[in-house]
Design a protein that fits this description.
It comes from Paenibacillus xylanilyticus. Its EC number is 3.1.11.6. It catalyses: Exonucleolytic cleavage in either 5'- to 3'- or 3'- to 5'-direction to yield nucleoside 5'-phosphates. One of its GO terms (biological process) is DNA catabolic process. The chain has one domain: Helix Hairpins (Orthogonal Bundle). The chain is about 60% helix and about 15% strand. The protein has 3 helices and 2 strands. A two-stranded antiparallel sheet has the order 1-2. The longest helix is centred in the middle third of the chain and has 28 residues. The protein starts with 8 loop residues before the first helix and ends in a 5-residue tail after the last helix.
Length: about 80
């Protein structure tokens, strides 16, 4: 994967699905299966990183006291200081 251009999320997922299908089929020689597994792990990590990047970019718009405010996607009420006791 080091010599390959960086894949976008969809390309990485498609490659990962192809690897899983090959491994599930079960007739892959052991050395090839190990190589496929290692490549699959790298693709899985790449997909996870890309999802984290997208999550950080997403902002939720919430209405608060008649005003629209932005807050990071996934922020809990505790993290954003919005718990009223």
């Amino acid at each position: 994967m080091a010599n390959e251009p960086e894949l976008n999320f969809e390309e990485a997922m498609a490659a990962l699905e192809d690897i899983v299908a090959q491994l599930e089929h079960g007739d892959v020689p052991l050395e090839q299966a190990i190589d496929l597994f290692q490549r699959g792990m790298k693709l899985s990590q790449l997909c996870g990183l890309k999802l984290e990047q997208v999550e950080r970019k997403i902002e939720m718009i919430v209405e608060e006291d008649g005003e629209l405010r932005k807050k990071p996607f996934g922020a809990t009420e505790v993290e954003s200081g919005e718990i009223n006791e």
